[in-house]
Amino acid sequence: MAVRLSRLLPAVLIAYFLVYFSPKLSKPAQRVKFGFFSRAERVGEELRASPRVEMIRQQSVANTTRNNSVVAGAKKYIVKQSVVRAVRQQTRSIRCRANTPNVTSPLCLTRVQTPKIRYSIRPLELRDVGACFHLGERVFSETSFNNLYRTWDEFEVVSLINSHPEFCFIAETEEAKGGEMVRVLAGFALGSVLMKNNGKSCIGYLDWVVVEPRFQCQGIGTSLTRRVIDGMKAEYNIKVLIADTPARNMPAINFFISRIGLTEKVPHVYMSREVKTQPEEPRGKVAPIVRMLSVDDLHLVHSLGEELFARFPNLIRNWDQHTIMAQFQTDREFSLVAEINGSLAGFALGTFIEKPLQKKKFGHLTWLGVDPKFARMGIGRRLVYEFERLVHNEGCQQLLVDTEEDNLAAIALFNKLNFSHKEKHVYFSTAISRTGPMLNSTLPASPSLAFSSADLDGAI
């Protein structure tokens, strides 16, 4: 028994020591008294009492709070934007399905399900000219595409049906009005063919394609375009097809590329300014004689244009003998030539566009050329000055010019003449064969992709 107690005595003493001193060891003062971790505790207390450490701690807390608020704000912004996008998408879908036109709506790329309508396509007739013009007036507004609005007038429809009736088509559908079914205009397409090299080569031009806004998403624009192109292939051995639209009209651009296969892209630019009431007469190195275009000038002007526009693919494709003759027939009073010592030094051809409903008139300088032999003599300035004087006498408020984006000489001249308000445009083209397919036959004829104010929002 004594031996066993002697063996248990150390264990009993150790247990008594732990029970008696454990409450005191839990206090910092007792730890220091007994020397347990005394140096580490002392250093830690000194660091905690340091002002710099306290400042760092407060900055860390502030940074953490700020970061949490930024993250929370970002989450709220993402949620808000998602809601806004959803609302806009739903609004655009409603606009595309609406029965009332909405020509000022933004570009709508939402795929929507719209009730299919029955429509028929037939050649454009004289009785349809007024309806087509008024539809274009509604679609090409100042708030949608300003340069199309300024270049669209009655003459566009009249001249194309007069010169190329075989490439002018309309789409009709039926609507209930007053208890009866009446036929209404759903859209139209106008095309033309440009003759080059005395008719040896022909270029097809898709001038205008417009669809009534409430009849969008029905494939009407696609069907109209197909009829125009098929007519060009049947009547002429066209080598190239071209079309154009504002650079921000992405639905039309996607249509040209994916459906028609127009792959070559030529950037274009429109510039404008207010017509001056008293334009300042330019002073050049020489004083050319500026007069109205005469019948004897037609061949000379055409030949000079062929030389000047040869290096600009878009300009040379639109420049042909028909252009000069049509200008002489319809806008001779806005056609000027400049002479120096009896030689043709340059020409300026233009027109004016009237908007009766808005009581506005625009002067459009469509062609301007100066013989390189008379360059840097102020001929171009003089021609623009004389043309501006003519359109001012007609009551025009704005003067409009356009050219290719890389025609730096013309753009520099227009900048010097205070033209601004640049609007980017783009021309598309492709080389075609007589028997090759023009439209992508692998895609459906009636796509559900919704375009903006018109299925193609008009070319040129």
N-to-C SSE string, H for helix and E for strand: HHHHEHHHEEEHEHEEHHHEEEHEHE
What is the global morphology?
extended
Treating each run of at least 4 consecutive H or I residues as one helix, how many helices?
A: 14
Beta-strand content? 25-35%
Structural class: alpha+beta
Would you count the extended β strands for me?
12
Unreliable parts: 23-38, 91-113, 440-460
- Gap between N and C termini, in Å? 120 Å
The residue-averaged pLDDT reads 76
Main sheet strand line-up: 1-2-3-4-5-12-6-11-10-9-8-7
* Helical content class: 40-55%
Radius of gyration: 38 Å
**What summary fits the major beta sheet?**
12 strands, mixed
Structure description:
The protein has about 450 residues and is of the alpha+beta class. The protein contains 14 helices and twelve strands. The chain has helices spanning about 1-25, 30-35, 40-50, 50-95, 130-140, 145-150, 155-165, 220-235, 250-260, 300-310, 315-320, 320-330, 380-395, 410-415; strands spanning about 120-125, 170-175, 180-195, 200-210, 240-245, 265-275, 290, 335-340, 345-355, 360-370, 400-405, 420-430. Helix 10 (about 300-310) crosses helix 12 (about 320-330). The longest helix is centred in the N-terminal third of the chain and has 47 residues, at about 50-95. The model is unreliable at about 25-40, about 90-115 and about 440-460 (pLDDT under 50).
Architecture blueprint of SSEs:
Blueprint: H1 2-25, H2 28-34, H3 38-48, H4 51-97, E1 119-123, H5 129-139, H6 146-151, H7 154-163, E2 168-177, E3 180-196, E4 201-211, H8 220-235, E5 238-246, H9 250-260, E6 264-274, E7 289-292, H10 298-308, H11 313-318, H12 321-330, E8 335-340, E9 343-355, E10 360-370, H13 379-393, E11 398-404, H14 408-416, E12 420-431
Parallel strand pairs: 4-5, 10-11
Antiparallel strand pairs: 1-2, 2-3, 3-4, 5-12, 6-11, 6-12, 7-8, 8-9, 9-10
